[in-house]
């Protein structure tokens, strides 16, 4: 089972992101379960959503306490919430930021995990016209983890949103996917 | 049948719409809101027609309108949760006492005070003696399926049915559900033929005052009909399986319990987590299984007794309790086991949305197997937090409100003196 936790703020589409990821997995004929953290969700307040993906029926209903993957939709949460809590060693963390890990003060922290960044808010502004990073991050996360294919992400986006919004978000996801692949290639070249 | 990845609330709303309710009086309350929102949308777009969707001013009005609508022969549905269920209590008893086949979803949520929007079973358990049938869903698939069965049972027996599903944990979970087709539901659920009808062409009155001369007999009939439901529920579930090709509902379901020394009894969505833990323990050679209670009212006395007879011990995990007494489901289990030997441990868990984790269950089952549990256990109870409040109460007559004091102890900001 592959377990993902998504951190963001109310209004950023955190719950939608978890549901899109689950839908993408479902489109690949896998079992998936997305659920929110059940807080009193308010615009701007820290929000958490979860997604499990497996090849067999998912029965467990506890919150995800030891994620394999983490998506951080708002880097200001790094100083407010224990976003990395319970993270499995070697797990994948994707952060929405245009800054480097060193600028975020995470250069040393990155040791035990795979950490990448993607400027998802900027990509969303460019492709969707609104600063909603959730769909773009899913494209990046697909590239980083292979948990789902980019095609499944864009198909899920098309199923969820009206045409124009879907096209923009799919383009943002595709751009983020390419951005993450370039980072991974850069890492390989450096190694 | 179309297999979809969807929110539990949406699956329930679409399934209820396929049952063709004629009247839906509804008042929103978390975590049930998405269900009635989706239904109002289906009525507005004409996808559910003919149907009268009534935006009422309260839950009391919702149930009162449901009673009126059902008495005029309309298939009637509503949904609620928590304080909303409590607010309609007087009308709940009227619906069951009058024998009106209303179907209602309860998206299970805690009852205040302290105010809490999260899941437990305090709301529906408080109405266990209201005369409504109570069915509990383990998954969103079952929640959707149970509504189709609920209308069949309600109309067959002339009794109202509550379909209880865990608030948030199920209502807001986005997972795969196989929705029935309209043709399948139509074939399974014949048109509603009311046993009593307010019809200007053939006037009758419903709701007579009954004195000591017949009150006991009318009330006894409610009980007798619930006893008939013990036969009707498995029969309808079997028919459902034959028609839809999957198992949902019934009175109870055993999971690896046939030869188990320790049997865990529970209701609702926590069973999935319990079954995962049971599989892990079985791999380690532990003799443990589970019995899922699908129907709490009527209480399947004989079936529970038969399912638990061979166990050494029974661990009842429930998301509500009778304050001042102990477990609610546990009391019913003891009743079913009277004269038999299994020890029964009541475990109260998951109150107000506290997660029931695999780690806590593993620890709990270990203690149960060692017979180290007391009769009543509160899973993951923070005893230090309780002790600190008791200490304050001992030290100061004006120790203040419990909830605010304890929230300050755990570091959550609460209203109070600054």
Q: What's the layout of helices and strands?
A:
The complex is a heterodimer of chains A (191) and B (418).
Chain A: E1 2-9, H1 14-27, E2 31-36, E3 46-54, E4 69-72, E5 92-96, E6 114-118, H2 120-127, H3 134-145, H4 150-160, H5 163-190
Parallel strand pairs in A: 1-4, 4-5, 5-6
Antiparallel strand pairs in A: 1-3, 2-3
Helix pairs in contact in A: 1-4, 2-3, 2-5, 3-4, 3-5, 4-5
Chain B: E1 3-7, H1 8-18, E2 23-26, H2 33-44, E3 52-55, H3 59-71, E4 77-80, H4 82-87, H5 89-97, E5 103-108, H6 122-126, E6 133-136, H7 140-157, E7 161-166, E8 174-178, H8 182-188, H9 215-244, E9 252-255, E10 262-266, H10 270-283, E11 288-293, E12 295-297, H11 301-308, E13 313-318, H12 328-336, E14 343-348, H13 358-369, E15 376-378, H14 383-395, H15 402-410
Parallel strand pairs in B: 2-3, 4-5, 5-7, 6-7, 10-11, 10-13, 13-14, 14-15
Antiparallel strand pairs in B: 1-8, 6-12, 9-11
Provide a descriptive summary of the structure in words.
The complex is a heterodimer of chains A (191) and B (418). By secondary structure, chain A is α/β, with parallel strands linked by helices. Chain A has one domain: Pyruvate-ferredoxin Oxidoreductase, domain 3 (3-Layer(aba) Sandwich), CATH 3.40.920. Helix content of chain A is 38%, strand content 19%. Chain A has 5 helices and 6 strands, in the order E-H-E-E-E-E-E-H-H-H-H. In chain A, strands 2-3-1-4-5-6 form a 6-stranded mixed beta sheet. The two termini of chain A are 30 Å apart. Chain B has 418 residues and is of the alpha/beta class. Chain B has 2 domains: 242 residues, Rossmann fold (3-Layer(aba) Sandwich), CATH 3.40.50; 127 residues, 3-Layer(aba) Sandwich (Rossmann fold), CATH 3.40.50.920. Helices cover 42% and strands 17% of the residues of chain B. Chain B has 15 helices and 15 strands. The longest helix of chain B has 30 residues. In chain B, 49% of the residues are buried. The mean pLDDT of chain B is 96. The chains are: A alpha/beta (191), B alpha/beta (418). At the A-B interface, helix 1 and strand 2 of A face strand 8 and helix 10 of B. Strand 2 of chain A pairs antiparallel with strand 8 of chain B, so a sheet runs across the interface.
């Amino acid at each position: 089972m592959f377990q993902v936790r998504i951190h963001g703020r109310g209004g950023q589409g955190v719950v939608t992101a978890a549901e899109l990821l689950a839908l993408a997995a479902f489109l690949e004929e896998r079992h998936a379960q997305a659920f929110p953290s059940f807080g009193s969700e308010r615009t701007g307040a820290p929000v958490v959503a979860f997604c499990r993906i497996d090849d067999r029926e998912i029965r467990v209903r506890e919150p995800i306490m030891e994620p394999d993957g983490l998506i951080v939709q708002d880097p200001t949460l790094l100083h407010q919430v224990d976003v990395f809590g319970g993270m499995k060693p070697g797990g994948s963390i994707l952060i929405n930021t245009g800054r480097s890990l060193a600028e975020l003060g995470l250069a040393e922290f990155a040791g035990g995990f795979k950490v990448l960044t993607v400027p998802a808010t900027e990509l969303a502004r460019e492709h969707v016209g609104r600063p909603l990073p959730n769909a773009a991050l899913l494209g990046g996360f697909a590239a980083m983890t292979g948990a789902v294919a980019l095609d499944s992400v864009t198909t899920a986006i098309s199923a969820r949103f009206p045409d124009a919004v879907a096209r923009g978000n799919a383009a943002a996801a595709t751009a983020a996917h390419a951005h993450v692949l370039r980072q991974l290639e850069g890492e390989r070249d450096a190694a | 049948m179309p297999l979809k990845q969807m929110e539990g609330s949406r699956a329930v709303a679409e399934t209820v719409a396929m049952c063709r309710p004629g009247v839906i009086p509804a008042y929103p309350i978390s975590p049930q809101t998405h269900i009635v929102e989706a239904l109002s949308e289906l009525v507005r777009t004409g996808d559910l027609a003919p149907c009268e969707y009534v935006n009422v001013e309260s839950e009391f009005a919702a149930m009162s309108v449901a009673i009126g609508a059902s008495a005029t022969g309309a298939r009637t549905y509503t949904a609620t949760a928590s304080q909303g269920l409590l607010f309609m209590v007087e009308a709940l008893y009227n619906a069951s006492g009058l024998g009106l086949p209303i179907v209602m979803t309860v998206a299970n949520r805690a009852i205040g005070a302290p105010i809490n929007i999260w899941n437990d079973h305090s709301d529906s358990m408080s109405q266990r003696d209201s005369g409504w049938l109570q069915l509990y869903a383990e998954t969103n698939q079952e929640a959707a399926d149970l509504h189709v069965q609920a209308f069949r049972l309600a109309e067959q027996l002339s009794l109202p049915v509550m379909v209880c599903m865990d608030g948030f944990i199920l209502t807001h979970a986005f997972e795969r559900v196989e929705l029935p087709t309209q043709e399948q539901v139509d074939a399974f659920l014949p048109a509603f033929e009311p046993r009593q009808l307010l019809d200007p062409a053939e006037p009758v009155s419903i709701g007579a005052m009954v004195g000591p001369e017949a009150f006991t007999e009318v009330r006894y009939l409610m009980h007798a009909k619930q006893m008939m439901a013990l036969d009707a529920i498995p029969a309808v579930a079997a028919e459902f399986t034959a028609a839809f090709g999957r198992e949902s509902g019934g009175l109870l379901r055993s999971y690896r319990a046939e030869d188990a020394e320790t049997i865990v009894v529970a209701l609702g969505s926590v069973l999935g987590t319990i079954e995962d833990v049971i599989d892990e323990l079985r791999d380690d050679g532990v003799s443990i299984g589970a019995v899922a209670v699908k129907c709490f009212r009527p209480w399947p006395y004989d079936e529970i007794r038969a399912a638990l007879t061979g166990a050494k011990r029974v661990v009842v995990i429930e998301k509500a309790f009778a304050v001042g007494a102990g477990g609610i489901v546990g009391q019913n289990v003891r009743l079913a086991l009277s004269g038999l030997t299994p020890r029964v441990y009541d475990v109260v868990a998951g109150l107000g949305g506290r997660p029931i984790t695999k780690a806590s269950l593993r620890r709990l089952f270990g203690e149960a197997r060692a017979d180290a549990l007391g009769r009543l256990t509160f899973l993951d109870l923070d005893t230090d937090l309780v002790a600190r409040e008791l200490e304050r109460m001992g030290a100061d007559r004006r120790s203040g409100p419990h909830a605010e004091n304890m929230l300050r102890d755990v570091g959550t900001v609460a209203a109070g003196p600054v």
